[in-house]
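Hi R.,

Here's the chain you asked about this morning:
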Amino acid sequence: MNDLRRDIMPAFYAHHRFGGKVARKMDGELKQIIREHYTQYAIGLQGPDILFYYRPYTVNKVIRIGTGMHAASAYPFFTKALDTVKKYGRHSPEYAYLLGFICHFILDSECHPFVGEWIVKSGVQHLEIEEEFEKKLLRLDQEHPLAFATARLIPTDDTTAMAICPFYDGLTPQIIKRALLDMRIVKGLFTAPGPIKNRLINAAMHLSGRHATWKGLMNQPNDNPKCVKSNEELLRLFYHSIQPAVDMIRSFDDSLQNGTELNKRFDRNFE
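And the predicted structure, written out as tokens:
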């Protein structure tokens, strides 16, 4: 695989859980749109991270698009998205995907500044900080932190690939579908409920010389005590971000329907 530093994110469950809580707070037509096309909404919760999984064993333009989006202001993306949704309609899989994408953007942009600070303060890598938080959330939901099958939450159907495609210039439904398939494969590979597979993967990481950087790709059986405080703060930020996500979905919908200026909160990056 290429340098995974922050490309392949372990925070799938955090975004999945967050989007569920946001959806429950929505009402009216927006809630109906999410219900009608929940599969597309749910994968939208992963934002541009799905692009990091496209043929992850090599550097390619799809991964670069995802990396570039994370570092850049999201305002141009959401400005273009207004036209895309107008084309396909409010009650479309495309709009449901975008509503999930808004959730991803809000949670990332609220949490990542703290993650950056904690990396400097603790010396723990980005991937591991997020992996430790994933385990905390899974335990809160009474799920097994090592056995939870994230891969089963990833859709690979044509309808979903076609709904995602219009938001990314230069990408085809076939590329999107390949990214989703690769995402499912990678998530399945790094789910290791048993000690044998867990030890084998960790050994392979050690042999590659990347264990310190990559170990956060897989939920580890031993918790890192340096992440106790980061888990507490990330949980606070998680719940603090729910209402802003609801508000920004409503704000975007107002811009879509009434032509009001896009909210300046979108003029931030994901980091």
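The chain has 13 helices and no strands.

Let me know if you need anything else.
M.
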